[in-house]
Amino acid sequence: MKELKDILFLDIETVSISETFEELSERMKTLWSRKASFLKREEGLTEDEFYFQRAGIYAEFGKVVSIGIGFFHAEEERLELRLKGLYNEDEKALLEHFNVVLGKMRSDNLKLCAHNGREFDFPYLSRRMLINGISLPSVLDLAGKKPWEINHIDTMDMWKFGDWKHYTSLDLLAAIFNIESSKTDMNGSDVNRVYYKDRKLEKIADYCLQDVAVTAQLYLKLKNIAAVPFEVTITPAN
């Protein structure tokens, strides 16, 4: 447990800030069109289709709809991976809830761990918190911190071994380390559709939690921590 103490594993799911491009203000339409002009775009996609497909991955044009969290807990010889899914259509309420959870961790050395977290999850959460007028928790507030003072762990960075050109998906790493995949009947590209068309936010939250469980197991593999049986406990959301 010494290796795992104070680590909060997480994953976020995001969608476009509105269902359609037309719902944006004129100012934001102009700014999205400008950004879209620099992005690789499949031939034949309309402005609205491209917005629906890509806007959710940018914090300026997207929002967080689900945050999956998990941590290891040991009691006597029993090890648990405790998971909880947070989700809400009200992004501000969701981020405030997440802030409360971080506060309850009561650790001066809290670490956040996510796959591709440095490039996506951590900055996205920070940007959306500020947009929603929420003060950043210490673990996300990087201002004035030296690199070694930033308590962020990224399993993709761990796999890169300094090779900054190399992107490896969580699904691929799960496969090579023989970890059960989180990709069942949906993947990341389906989230916007499931949210806006199917109206199944709880399904997105379940998918998000699966990624958290895979990330936690991947961390064990990358740290070469001896495989020990552990139970998975899921706390009902909200």
From TrEMBL:
<keyword id="KW-0378">Hydrolase</keyword>
<dbReference type="InterPro" id="IPR036397">
    <property type="entry name" value="RNaseH_sf"/>
</dbReference>
<dbReference type="InterPro" id="IPR019288">
    <property type="entry name" value="3'-5'_exonuclease_PolB-like"/>
</dbReference>
<keyword id="KW-0540">Nuclease</keyword>
<keyword id="KW-0269">Exonuclease</keyword>
<dbReference type="GO" id="GO:0004527">
    <property type="term" value="F:exonuclease activity"/>
</dbReference>
<protein>
    <submittedName>
        <fullName>3'-5' exonuclease</fullName>
    </submittedName>
</protein>
<dbReference type="InterPro" id="IPR012337">
    <property type="entry name" value="RNaseH-like_sf"/>
</dbReference>
<dbReference type="Pfam" id="PF10108">
    <property type="entry name" value="DNA_pol_B_exo2"/>
</dbReference>
<dbReference type="GO" id="GO:0003676">
    <property type="term" value="F:nucleic acid binding"/>
</dbReference>
<feature type="domain" description="Predicted 3'-5' exonuclease PolB-like">
    <location>
        <begin position="61"/>
        <end position="225"/>
    </location>
</feature>
